[in-house]
Amino acid sequence: MSGIRGVTRRTMLVAGALASATLLGACSRTPDVIKIGVGQPLSGPLAALGRDLANGVQMAVDEINAAGGVSMNGKAVRLEVVTADDRSDPEAGVAAARQLAEAGVLVAVAHLNSGVSIPAAAVYAEAGIPQLAISTKPDYTRLGLPTTLRLVASDDLQSRALGSYATQMPGVERVAVVDDNTPYGKGLADSSAKVIAEAGRKITVRRSYDDKTTDFAALVQELKSTDTQLFVTTLSDFQVEALIEQLVRAGMAQMRILGGDTIKTDRMIKSAGRIAGVYATSSILEAREFMAGRGFLERFRARFKGEPVYGAHYAYDSVFVVADALSRNGSADKARLLQRLKTFDGNAPVTTTMRFAEDGEQRYAAIGVYRLGAALWEPLMRSDQW
Q1: What is the pLDDT of residues 196-237, one digit of tens each?
Q2: Can you give the pTM of this predicted structure?
Q3: Are 362 and 346 contacting, i.e. CB atoms less than 8 angstroms apart?
Q4: What is each CA distance from 82 to 51, 85, 106, 109, in whole angstroms?
């Protein structure tokens, strides 16, 4: 009996070892498909921007798959896109994050708005999913979560750029700073005003309006009476368009305006030439500014029958960086992917540089400065040091 028990025991140990090895192999085996999540506003007022980012992801996935997929341990792994509509709404964003996590995505290009990215971040962190957001609010990477990664420069750098460029403009001594009273706009304006004041320029007007105001009659008179030379603002394009009309009527066509992303739109082009100059800073450098941008734009137009409208090239590059990380790791493990993303310079075909620091910020992110021309916004300069 003891001999039989010994054989049985050895048999069970061998069987257990084989089962463990099988389980380990199943867990570590190279998958056939890796899912890339996209959480963006695909409906509502910001749908065009969300679809643009989703198109960038889809285009990258299509190109990678057409080239044979991601090479992992000698195996070609296909990528698959899973989308979720966050509707630019915090609650919908959390639901979209849960939807992507439940779908088994390995990484998520999510979200556009800081107001969505921040509440959704906890969902991705709980699932261990690296979250690649184009949101710019500094708080996003200060949540104490390891999975929050930013694709572009934050508002910290944007505010320094806005204030610094204002002080570099020739002949500017008196500056007005006006915001739209949103958390984003007011915070950006406050920080910029501080930079301007510290440089010794006089702040003639510091005002907040709501994000719908278009009657600036009293403001125009104040600008005139204080002989303001530069108007720094975070108002939206339609508001600045109305302001320009009222400045011209008041005989103040010599005014220069400097804003942020909210005025760097195609709508502003019809106001070109009406006043001395309109300038904008932006954390979203345009694809045409990069050497490889032309090829990207040609392929994008052929694929989607139109122009990109926002940050499609950043979303596109983010997928290539992820694919590069996966190939180097030879693994679909999320923790290893996150570690790799924070420690290497991955393949970013358009922007050439997409390097995440340990805190999730872009190590070499830049802010561009643009001037409103007759047909488009003309790039003047860009820098990661302001």
Answers
A1: 999 999 999 999 999 899 999 999 999 999 999 999 999 999
A2: 0.88
A3: no
A4: 13, 10, 10, 10
Cα distance from N-terminal residue to C-terminal residue, the chain: 83
The candidate with the shortest Cα–Cα distance to 86, out of 76, 96, 99, 78, is 96
User: Which DSSP string corresponds to 77-122?
Assistant: EEEEEEEEE-TT-HHHHHHHHHHHHHTT-SEEEE-SSHHHHHHHHH
Instruction: Please answer whether residues 21 and 39 qualify as being in contact, where contact means their C-beta atoms are separated by less than 8 angstroms.
Output: no
Identify whether 111 is preceded by a cis peptide bond (ω within 30 of 0).
Answer: yes
Rounded distance, CA 313 to CA 322, Å? 14
d(CA 255, CA 308): 31
pLDDT in tens, 119-169: 999 999 999 999 999 999 999 999 999 999 999 999 999 999 999 999 999
Is residue 205 classed as helix, strand or coil in its secondary structure?
A: strand
DSSP states of 309-353: -SSHHHHHHHHHHHHHHHHHHTS--HHHHHHHHTTS----TTTS-
